[in-house]
Amino acid sequence: MKVLLDTCVIYPTVMRQMLLGVARQGVFTPLWSARIVGEWLRAAEKLGPAGAEQARAEAAMLAAAWPGAQVDYPQSLEARLWLPDAADIHVLAAAVAGSADLIVTLNVKDFPRNILAEEGISRADPDSFLHGIWQAQPDLVQEVADAVLADAIRLSGKEWQMRALLKKARL
Question: By CB neighbour count within 10 A (0-12 exposed, 13-18 middle, 19+ buried), where does 104 fall?
Fold first, then answer.
């Protein structure tokens, strides 16, 4: 299954780590576009120079880990598509060009199911998407979650509990 990840699910670190941790286990193939990554990097600039530098490094690691994940598409594709928020058409264009089965996004209202269905694409919020995977493969998701928790504790120096960490990440 090919899954286009919207900027809003790539930018929060824990959410990105959970989604891509599951992808690393072969559950799905992640996709994104240069514009999606660019939006992530611009958002990270608001954290200051250190945040922007960290995001650039993480984006480079993602590109190395998934060299085929970045989808390119012609501008003409965007021109034929419509969404309630024109600023999100590039996400749908990348999904169409990448033959994605699903768009994972928090922006539910901007991606109406009937419009996506015309392109053969579904959408899911990250929590529902991960929950469905957890129901099918609980050990796999638990392993990923444990690794994300250990990473959060190591990087922050805080004693995070799983529930609090996932809640903070809107999962």
Answer: buried
